[in-house]
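Please predict the structure of the following assembly.
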Amino acid sequence: GENVEQHPSTLSVQEGDSAVIKCTYSDSASNYFPWYKQELGKRPQLIIDIRSNVGEKKDQRIAVTLNKTAKHFSLHITETQPEDSAVYFCAASNGKGGGNKLTFGTGTQLKVEL
Amino acid sequence: GAVVSQHPSRVICKSGTSVKIECRSLDFQATTMFWYRQFPKKSLMLMATSNEGSKATYEQGVEKDKFLINHASLTLSTLTVTSAHPEDSSFYICSATEGGADTEAFFGQGTRLTVV
């Protein structure tokens, strides 16, 4: 099955700096790659996603890049703010089995310091 | 976006009892829902795929007789933790999608289960 690895596990940045989180996946058939932000005790919230026919996608301060050949994708957050502090998860899906069966990365605890 | 509601948000039960968790898609129909388990400071681990009108598909290592899943309608899936033990204490969360496999998955708010 799919295996998703995520690095780093913790990341501290100063407010205004950029943050980059990287993920690799194993299943070459995976075609959907969402990123979720989860605050303590809350549900994961989708912040951005990318499909395999696109190499890069941007939404204001957030961008995601995908390298299908290398099987890795990255989340980039620019001009970080304290409210960006949370756990971020990458995920991958190959569309099999119906619905959207996601395999999650191990998570990155992002702390934005003042 | 679409709304997925999960109930209860917190439950405490005694060892040996069973607990039912509900997951509802409020404004869309979901033929497939997913149940995840999340330990503190850990990732979401898929437990099973819930299929409307048919048996759930369990991930390797998940006891189907312990974690009973029923998907009786296009808007409701239930997870029953049977004969709960303290090691079953965890955060359980469901998800559903409106469309196909590459569409946004919406999550319920999660259920914090504590078995005492």
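The interface with chain B takes residues 31-32, 34, 41-46, 49, 51, 89, 93-107, 109 of chain A (CB under 8 Å). The radius of gyration of chain A is 14 Å.
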